[in-house]
Amino acid sequence: MVTLATSRSQANAVPQSTVAALEPSPVLSVENLEVTYYTDLGRARALDQVSFTLRAGQKLGMVGESGSGKSTLALAMMRMIKPPGRIEGGRVVIGGTDLIGLDEQGMRHARLNKIAYIPQGAMNSLNPVMRIGSQMVDAVKAHLPDEPRSAVQERCYHALRSVDLDPGVFRMYAHELSGGMKQRVCIAIGILLRPSVIIADEPTSALDVVTQRQVMETIDRVQDEINAAVILIGHDMGLMAQFVDAVAVMYAGRLVEISSVREMFTDPKHPYAQALISSLPNLDNKGVFKGIPGLAPSLLRLPSGCAFHPRCPNAMETCTAVSPDLLTLANNRRVACHLYDAETVS
Ligand SMILES: Nc1ncnc2c1ncn2[C@@H]1O[C@H](COP(=O)(O)OP(=O)(O)OP(=O)(O)O)[C@@H](O)[C@H]1O
């Protein structure tokens, strides 16, 4: 199992061989995770053999077109996939514990404790008729029923301060807060028990650009404070570029590339990642929008071989027949594309 490239500053300073020797073991290891939705129209394999690792303090951006499986990955890691979906196999190991193997009670304990999930639109799901404080206290009490009231309250105040909110927010209702403040409350709830892994699904959608930046900076700061590994799911590649260490690209339920943020933006390897990057607007291509030809395939009728081959400008005969494995290239980059079969380093 390959660990992602180190954080931006480390990666530039130390030779790769030394980094590999010094690297601590990953805090999160996702291994061959598979999810299928059993619909009336057939089986949709929404996650297909997804594997990656993250170390404490790393931040991974997860990108891909709508329907590529990003939220399914988050829900599977939380064991929150609902019928008609089913986790078919794989492991999600955090600090030595495989979450997929836990019983329901063990998993309830692991949520918020080991892994926290801030879902899409979380700020709109705060209870409008409960004070923010009561919602925070309930979350703590569900996991630490014996913690004294004063300690629970202090824990909540600390979490609010960590996300730059006044502890007075404890007594407020959601309707009294701005969108950015509500999103920060959701982050505060996510870090109440100082989990090792935080997944934030589109944490900045529906916020203005200034508030988006503040929310991302808040995530950065709380990550530093509790040294968590963070997975940021989103579509905004520009925002990702500024805040994550590495980027993972999903296509039709598979991870097709994982690279450091610098490599992804300057030299993407997978033809789909190349198309994603070149479709980003910049000052040189002002007014010229370069989209990705064709449509993302239905998971019910995936093309044979590599699912991207009908849209790929580099497709070869083998791509129509054989699904490429996620191979490891130099610099711990991982790419699932036959173009690189000969470059594998391990
Ligand atoms: N409840 C469901 N029933 C059937 N199929 C589903 C269900 N939820 C998801 N899927 C399938 O799983 C695929 C992945 O969905 P998912 O929500 O994980 O994508 P996503 O990449 O997070 O999309 P978005 O960026 O729009 O949030 C979808 O294309 C759909 O085919």
UniProtKB/TrEMBL annotation:
Membrane topology: Peripheral membrane protein
Recorded family membership: Belongs to the ABC transporter superfamily.
Record carries keyword ATP-binding: yes
PROSITE patterns reported for this sequence: ABC_TRANSPORTER_1, ABC_TRANSPORTER_2
Name of the featured protein: Dipeptide/oligopeptide/nickel ABC transporter ATP-binding protein
Biological process annotations from GO: peptide transport; transmembrane transport
Domain of life according to the entry: Bacteria
Record-linked InterPro entries: AAA+_ATPase, ABC_transporter-like_ATP-bd, ABC_transporter-like_CS, Oligopep_ABC_C, P-loop_NTPase
Residue ranges of every copy of the ABC transporter domain listed in the record: 30-277
Subcellular location: Cell inner membrane
Molecular function as annotated in GO: ATP binding; ATP hydrolysis activity
